[in-house]
Automatic annotation (TrEMBL):
SUPFAM superfamilies noted in UniProt: Protein kinase-like (PK-like)
Sequence ranges of Low complexity compositional bias: 35-47
Family: Belongs to the protein kinase superfamily.
Protein name (database record): non-specific serine/threonine protein kinase
Source organism (scientific name): Colocasia esculenta (Wild taro)
Length: 414
């Protein structure tokens, strides 16, 4: 198995959230129609505008209430070598439970889980713990991490999630070493689309959910490199009625927050769209949103890249050099233009997440069309050469499949 269920490290602005609300019913869009967010299978509850009490939240029929001793046994007494990640509000441990009874199991048996144990100091940690249960206890989507249960016993606050064996997008983009090979262009676009579908699902709930902390460390990958949003501690219900925004204290992570949110504390779904633009730019460039180790003038990724993204001839100065030869000129231009649109200084010029999903799906379809044309070309070459290999078919391998040019034999390029 892989590793890493990564906890976010929050940076609370000195400028200035309370967990939001929820209850059970079928997930529908604001126009009253069933939504699958671009053909993904969705099963979820809506999150109503009326805030629920702590007791109501903890009575979620979709979650199991674990005892502290259960989780202590499942994680082998929270052993240091079981730690998957650490953050400002707690540590995450790897554990094992029986897939039928959910009782603690021996390591290597049953199913693997990730157990977040919150620090016991401070009320903010409890509020975020409750917010995660409130949202993930009701919402289900293929691009949201699954919450299995929680522990609420004495001073102990724990959350139990499905284990994500590939770890975080952050690790795959920025860690260097033999385990983390560079993600291919196609894989980056697949992950961007999956994360976008997760955000679009939240934004189109009966009561809009604003994620508020979209970043690479909160995007986790399963064994098939499907992206799932994790860590809903800062999530908040969107505006209702004729309100245009929600006013909150500014919380999140530096480098990802929208400028109008930082300036005013006014939160909308377009705040998430901006954060998505930052992450998409990180995926295109292979650079962190904020990196003080870069030369002067390049510390802030958005500020450095914006002039290049708006010039078709210069966008390649932004693109990750490790991706050379893996993308088409048109595909790179469209991806860069989408990132730039999401990063518009004025929120009204940013697309909705549904529009982002549509744009990324078009990129995916264009890639598939190119692949199909290669297959057809290969068939024509085979028939015209009487079954003999020709120089023009040098990318064909022995079993008749297409061996696309790859900079590495790593399975990450599959």
């Amino acid at each position: 198995m892989g590793n890493c269920f990564v906890v976010k490290i929050k940076a609370e602005s000195p400028f200035h959230s309370t967990p939001a609300s929820g209850a059970n019913s079928r997930y529908v869009s604001r126009d009253g129609n069933d939504r699958s967010c671009s053909s993904s299978r969705v099963s979820a509850a809506s999150v109503p505008a009326t805030p629920r009490s702590e007791g109501e939240i903890l009575q979620s029929p979709n979650l199991k209430s674990f005892s502290f001793n259960d989780l202590k046994s499942a994680t082998r007494n929270f052993r240091p070598d079981s730690v998957l990640g650490e953050g400002g509000f707690g540590s995450v441990f790897k554990g094992w439970i029986d897939e039928h009874t959910f009782a603690a199991a021996k390591p290597g048996t049953g199913i693997v889980i990730a157990v977040k144990r919150l620090n016991q100091e401070g009320f903010q940690g409890h509020r975020e713990w409750l917010a995660e249960i409130n949202y993930l206890g009701q919402l289900y989507h293929p691009n949201l991490v699954k919450l299995l249960g929680y522990c609420f016993e004495d001073e102990h606050r724990l959350l139990v999630y499905e284990f994500m064996p590939r770890g975080s997008l952050e690790n795959h983009l920025f860690r260097r070493g033999s385990y983390f090979q560079p993600l291919s262009w196609n894989l980056r676009m697949k992950l961007a689309l999956g994360a976008a579908r997760g955000l679009a699902f939240l934004h189109n709930a009966e009561t809009t959910v604003i994620y508020r902390d979209f970043k690479t460390s909160n995007i986790l990958l399963d064994s098939s490199y499907n992206a799932k949003l994790s860590d809903f501690g800062l999530a908040k219900d969107g505006p209702t009625g004729d309100k245009s925004h929600v006013s909150t204290r500014v919380m999140g992570t530096y480098g990802y927050a929208a400028p109008e949110y930082l300036a005013t504390g006014h939160l909308t779904v377009k705040s998430d769209v901006y954060s998505f633009g930052v992450v998409l730019l990180e995926m295109l460039s292979g650079r962190r949103a904020v990196d003080k180790n870069r030369p002067s003038g390049e510390h802030n990724l958005v500020e450095w890249a914006r002039p290049y993204l708006s010039n078709k001839r210069k966008i390649f100065r932004v693109l990750d050099a490790r991706l050379e030869g893996q993308y088409s000129f048109v595909g790179a231009q469209k991806a860069a233009a989408l990132a730039l649109q999401c990063l518009s200084s004025e929120s009204k010029f940013r697309p909705s997440m549904e529009q982002v999903v549509s744009a990324l799906e078009e990129l995916q379809e264009a890639k598939d069309a190119v692949r199909n044309s290669h297959v057809q070309q290969n068939c024509r070459v085979q028939s015209s050469s009487g079954g003999h290999r020709s120089r023009r078919a040098s990318w064909q391998v022995g079993n008749g499949d297409i061996a696309y040019p790859r900079p590495s034999a790593s399975p990450l390029y599959a």
